[in-house]
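Now for a typical sample entry:
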Amino acid sequence: MTSAAQPESLLGTYPTLRAVHRFAHLVARMSWFHDIGDPMDETLRGKALDYASALGFPDVTPAVLVRWEDAAAALETRDYNSPAWEAEEQLRMALTADAAAVIPETALRAALESVAAIAAEAADAGARDIARFLQIGDPDFVRIATGAAVQACHQAALLLAAQGGAADHPFALKLRLFEQGRWPLGIVGMSLNIF
């Protein structure tokens, strides 16, 4: 496993890096993708609605896609210039600026790269496990799922680095969907697609 270690002097000097350091250890223990394709329960529905509302889309309806083929089709039709994508990108840029204002660039980059490496290893293992269990033969599944998990962890780590974390921030709420063993595929029209 890739080390999440940061020099103690940096963790003491920049307190939000300590939160990122702890987060990296949590990422390694998450059960990635273990419930994809399962029916939606009230807990998942509530978390999905919280995320969509915090992102600025309170009228969106969560929809669970139960087959990888349907999830892959939803990903193919996703618009990277959609209002939801733009909202996440604006949040990411603001958090990057906030974090850069309080943490030196090299230390921030090292912390985020450490989280990404740990997330990639853990999510890859989870994606491979569920692909075997669900008999998903598409070789792109593991790569795409792992990439989505790494992106969500990057966003959450950036939030921690910039602000120390905020439970109601869209990036924290998005990560909670992954913690449920799900994969939020994105908002398309009036639907938040979840695998």
About this structure: The chain has one domain: 13-194.
